[in-house]
Design goal:
Elements lengths: L1 E5 L2 E4 L4 E8 L7 E7 L5 E7 L5 E3 L7 E6 L4 E6 L8 E8 L8 E2 L3 E6 L1
Parallel strand pairs: 2-11
Antiparallel strand pairs: 1-3, 3-8, 4-5, 4-9, 5-6, 7-8, 9-10, 9-11
């Protein structure tokens, strides 16, 4: 299984970015996918996730600003990030598991998001 992220970049506070994660070699239709963020000097934390059935979950700090979605026809998951804040800065990783619960088994290489104030 391979996960490839894209869409990161440098933006100013209040602007938007859309991250994408494309999976290959996975049973994508039954997979749950999560987006993690690792800020400098911090651990990697789950930001948003989506189940195979489309149920979504968000960490409180991004609710109403971030939207996770999936396109099963393209084996892709997107993270729309609006009203970005400097504290959203970090490396964003896509993770996938081919089962409803448990640890994520596969990880992408990460994409850098930097939000300037």
């Amino acid at each position: 299984v391979q996960l490839v992220e894209s869409g990161g970049g440098l933006v100013q506070a209040g602007e938007s970015l859309r991250l994408s994660c494309v999976a290959s070699g996975a049973l994508f239709r039954v997979a749950a996918v999560g987006w993690y963020r690792q800020a400098p000097g911090h651990q990697r934390d789950l930001v948003a996730s989506i189940t195979s059935g489309g149920r979504t979950n968000y960490v409180d700090s991004v609710k109403a600003r971030f939207t996770i979605s999936r396109d099963n026809a393209k084996n892709a998951v997107h993270l729309q990030m609006d009203a970005l804040k400097p504290e959203d800065t970090g490396v964003y990783y896509c993770a996938l598991r081919e089962k409803p619960l448990g640890e994520y088994d596969y990880w992408g290489q990460g994409t850098q998001v930097t939000v300037s104030s």
